[in-house]
Amino acid sequence: MVLLGTKGGPPVSADRAGISSAVVVDGATYLVDAGRAAVTQYTSAGLAWADLRAAFVTHLHTDHIADLFQVFLLGGFQAPAQGDSLPGPVPVYGPGPAGGLPPVFGGGQAPTTNPDDPTPGLVGFFDRSSEAFAYSTNVFMRDSLIRETRALADVHEIQMPQVGADHQHTAPTMDPFVVMEDDRVRVSAVLVPHGPVFPAFAYRFDTDHGSVTFSGDTTYSSNLVRLARRSDLLVHEAINVRGWSGPPAVVEHLLEGHVEVQRVGSIAQGAEVERLILSHVGDMAEPRRLDPRKWHRWAQQGYDGRVSVGNDLEVFRVR
Fold first, then answer.
1. How far apart are CA 73 and CA 254, in angstroms?
2. DSSP 3-state assignment of 53?
């Protein structure tokens, strides 16, 4: 498992790339989210575009999809015979349309982008991204004989079990369900509570070599604990708000969508995972300098297993 980028949230950081991870199983690569600089990090990690089997999106916040279309626009630019490139249409799994927008935090009103379709899902994201790059793609298809970018993404909006979930009830109690299975991996998912965002998924990868669970963005979730049960690796998001002088209402709002680093160890303990890895990290009290020793100590609280505060391009092996 490779941490391509470990930064939490949209603001740009010089020391951490946007959130993205890869699971590599016997030479096949599976991408989880594609935040800022994911395409560069993918190449820096020594991963080949020709080996990309599938991509999975936890939710449609900008910091998780900033480079998603670029995976296909740039990672699939060359013809396979000319160099490393996507071999053909790559399956992409992720959220469908939310179906509604939340109220404005703190009251009042906010503008609405694209009011005719304000909550597009993954298909809409790819279709409109393709339209935005139409001129470049059309010229390159004629001048350099590239493939049509949109055709390289085989988009699957995840169909959820009937558990009463919608944009007002974002993560009701549920059992994991299988999203995708091939000869290397079985991928399961659950809904997790990430503030007003819907749908937001956590994913588990089961292989012959072991298992890896990605929390996605979430506050405490019994669904996640159920999904992660006895995983070899749990890659979990974390935030620190202690020592931050932000308004209490904002702190409360943040913790409706994220887990404090001081609590994440108890989640790993409850799920009985072998190892806890922190990614999508953000320290509100020290935004320019995350102290890994302090974070390690905090995350270890309530957990008997191994803890790692993840860094960009760090590699973890399962068994």
1. 33
2. strand
Whole-angstrom distance, CA of residue 82 vs CA of residue 94: 30
Q: Which residues of the chain have pLDDT under 70?
A: none
Evaluate whether 94 touches 64 at the Cβ level (below 8 Å): no
**What pLDDT sits at residue 287?**
86
Cis peptide bond N-terminal to 176, omega within 30: no
Question: Can you identify the CATH homologous superfamily of domain 2-104+121-315?
Answer: Ribonuclease Z/Hydroxyacylglutathione hydrolase-like (3.60.15.10)
Backbone φ/ψ region at 9: left (φ over 0), alpha (ψ -120 to 50), beta: left
Q: What is the pLDDT, as a whole number, of residue 101?
A: 98
Q: What is the pLDDT of residue 210?
A: 98
Tokens (6 digits) for 242: 């202690």
238/218 Cα distance (integer angstroms)? 9
DSSP string, 198-256: SS-EEEEEEETTEEEEE--S-SS-HHHHHHHTT-SEEEEEEEE-TT----HHHHHHHTT
Domain ranges for the chain = 2-104+121-315
Please give the pLDDT value at position 195. 97
In this prediction the pTM is: 0.97
- State the pLDDT at residue 49: 98
Could you tell me if 25 and 81 are in contact, meaning their C-beta atoms sit under 8 angstroms apart?
no
